[in-house]
Amino acid sequence: MLNVLIVDDIAENLYFLDVLLRGNGFGVLAAANGAEALESARKSPPDLIISDILMPVMDGYALCREWRADERLRQIPFIFYTATFIEKKDEELALGLGADRFVIKPQEPDDLMVIIREVLAGNRSGAESRTEAAHPEEGELLREYNEALFRKLEKKMFDLEQANRELEQKMLDQRHLEEQLRQVQKMEAIGRFSTGIAHDFNNILTVIFGFGSVMKLKMAAKDPMHENIDHILAAADRAANLTRSLLTFSRKQEMKLQLLSLNSCIRNVEKFLRRIIGEDIKLITSQRVEEILIYADGGHVEQVLMNLAANARDAMPDGGILSIGTDIVVVDDEFIRMHGYGKPGRYALLTFADNGTGMNENTRQRIFEPFFTTKETDKGTGLGLSIIYGIVEQHNGHISVYSEPGQGTTFKILLPLMSGEFAADGAGIGQLPLEHGDETILVVDDEAPIRQYLESFLTTLGYKVLLAQDGREAVQLFRDKGAEVDLVLMDVIMPYKNGREAAREIKELQKDIKIVFTSGYPHDLIHERNLLDDDAQILMKPLTPTDLARKLRAAFDGCQS
Predict the structure, then answer these.
(1) Helix axes 109-123, 11-23, angle to 10 degrees
(2) CA–CA distance, 60 with 40 (Å, rounded to integer)
(3) pLDDT over 90, % of the chain
(4) pLDDT-based confidence at 153, cuts 50/70/90?
(5) Cα separation of 242 and 262, whole Å?
(6) Are 346 and 466 contained in the same domain?
(7) Across the chain, what does the average pLDDT equal?
(8) Count of CB atoms within 10 A of residue 143's CB?
(9) What are 470-522's pLDDT values in tens digits?
């Protein structure tokens, strides 16, 4: 067996030559640089040396020079196998030092073996008798072996490429999961933020609702300031709806469902929608003549309309036409088959169409994703359409969108149609008679403006009022004047003693005392912290006069409201 010394500082190159030579019946010795090669060859001279040029310690040129200067090694054939080839003089230098061949990497395995055998045959007498290449039948076997080896290498390369593709897919999946995690974290952050602002914001709105309503109650019927007060109360109502929409979107607030007229909802906000879109966009409304009744949260329906209007305005920077229409449609099996969604039944259809810039298919498929926006960083949050999607889903409805670049956008929203007589609920102050009384109410709240509003409003209705600023003071006041008190109206979260703690101590003093709790925090936080008993009566802030008067009267009369 002929032994070949291979010299290269790259492990992969050594491995390739080792596999190739051993597969062709050669023995193999290896060295990482010229110095190691000389030391190895002087101990056990090989039959051939194959060397790289650029290596540490001693490069290939120095090795060849030392090789030819050594009397024991000078007759052993020397092949340069290198990727170093800038000019013809590189090869001339190598051959001038005594190298037998100058071969450029890479070479096909069969071609390299031909070169090796040629060098051995031309430089060693009798080599033919000791190498398989001298026998044609063995040469054919070696060619077959080389072909099989090459196929194995190709298979390994294919497997490596496949593994790389799988790794890339896993990395994409990992990035997708990381993005989903970021979205979840953002949603959790919105939930925490919503909960944090809800309490303070609802307290502020309670004061606006309260004093605005008290002013209106005390005005003469023909006072010209009535309209201004109505605007203030309407704006406060929209602000309360915005807060509830944000809390509902983050699953922090239950919906306030009631029987509504879809046409009336549009008429109620039509003036406000015109302000949102601006004077350069024409608003056209087309409503079905007959009443369209839905069971929905009125504030959420208005939120859908306002968000879609704002979206349409941004899609028509140079002006255009916005059309809002209502109709009744029947969803049957054929409709579900064509559109891929819905349940059989009769639905209210809300159509919202603009002739703006439109969007491509990729954008259309992503518009309902939270935080996805095509606007500049400081121009949009990416929450408007996802809030709309969440609201529609929570109402057991469906929303679809059609759009093409330059052809505008059309949203279609289906909401389950209700039957029955329409009764407006939640009419404002002055639209429904406020229920009066002459009982004594202990009002407990840590916000001074809310205490002032409640005292002013409740005394206007005929009630007598006692005030306490926290749970501890409420208990002490009840000890002193409990015999006079008919009902306690108490905030849930307060300093010193919270509402539940104070209520328990008050009930120890008078077991059958009526207690109505109030809170600006969302329902889920109250339940999570176990701040109230399951049978407790609660009125959520903002405390509008109509809701407050009805709730108190129901509590006095022994009814649940």
Answers:
(1) 70
(2) 15
(3) 31
(4) low
(5) 19
(6) no
(7) 81
(8) 13
(9) 999 999 999 999 999 999 999 998 988 999 999 999 999 999 999 999 988 77
Strand, helix or coil for residue 415: strand
E strand segments, 63-129: 78-82, 101-104
Helix (H, G, I), strand (E, B), or coil: what is residue 33?
Answer: coil
- Same domain assignment for residues 271 and 404: yes
Mean pLDDT value of segment 456-460: 91
Separation of alpha carbons 159 and 262, rounded Å: 62
Domain of residue 388, CATH code: 3.30.565.10
Which domain does 313 fall in, by range? 256-416
Domain boundary among 88, 109, 134: 134
CA distance 553 to 561: 9
Give the pLDDT band (50/70/90) at residue 526: confident
CB hemisphere CA count around 294 (13 angstroms): 29
Total domains, the chain: 3
Statement to judge: residues 406 and 283 lie in one domain: yes
CA 315/CA 408 separation, integer angstroms: 8
CB atoms inside a 10 Å sphere around CB 109: 20
pLDDT tens-digit map of 73-86: 989 999 999 886 55
- Domain-located, residue 212: no
Indicate whether 362 and 471 sit together in one domain.
no
What's the CATH number where 474 sits? 3.40.50.2300
Judgement on whether residues 386 and 489 belong to the same structural domain of the protein:
no
Q: Say which amino acid occupies 525.
A: L
- Give the Cα separation of 195 and 176 in Å (integer): 29
Whether pLDDT at 116 is above 80: yes
- Residue 50 reports pLDDT greater than 50: yes
In a domain, 198, yes or no: no
Residues 261 and 406 in one domain: yes
